[in-house]
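Incident log, structure service

09:12 report received: a user says their structure output differs between two submissions of the same chain.
09:20 pulled the input from the user's history:
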Amino acid sequence: MKTKITGFLVAFLLLGGNLFSILPVGEIPDVITLSEKAGGRVDGTPWSSSELVGKVWVVVYADPDESELNDAATEALKAKDYSNDVYQSVAIINMSATWKPNFLINTILKGKQKKYPDTIYVKDMDKTLVKTWGLADDSNDIVVFDSNGIVIFSHDGQLDADAIAEMISTIDTEIAKVK
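09:34 re-ran on a clean worker, output below:
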């Protein structure tokens, strides 16, 4: 009996944390504004989650040390080549989740912004999305919003092939509604 309870507790602690690090589907999360010392766009201008309307938005919230964790998912999104009229992506970097110096991350982000001008790159200096939205720290989260700012897909950690297919299907369905 003791072994079963211990096993259950270990499973709950390992899996339970993951269950609480995603945004609930069907809800509009609290508005977050990142500016000045709290972060903002790579060019230094503020960014607000109130911008996540009018089209389908994909937000990737990443610890720089986990930035490649969902490369398969981002490659799948790139392959779809969605029109900017109905689709937009935001990469928000959890700057406090890494040992890497900020100047190095800033240099990398400026290069990515030039290479991928259709993606908005944002810095979160104080784990604001972890504290306010409950996203996982030291991880890589992907959240998809519909054109009204409602969460329609949310996943913490690496997406497997099934999760990537679900995300793409969700986006395709929503884009069909927006057109």
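09:41 both user submissions now match this output. Likely a transient worker issue. Closing.
09:42 reviewer note: The chain has one domain: 2-178. The chain is about 35% helix and 20% strand.
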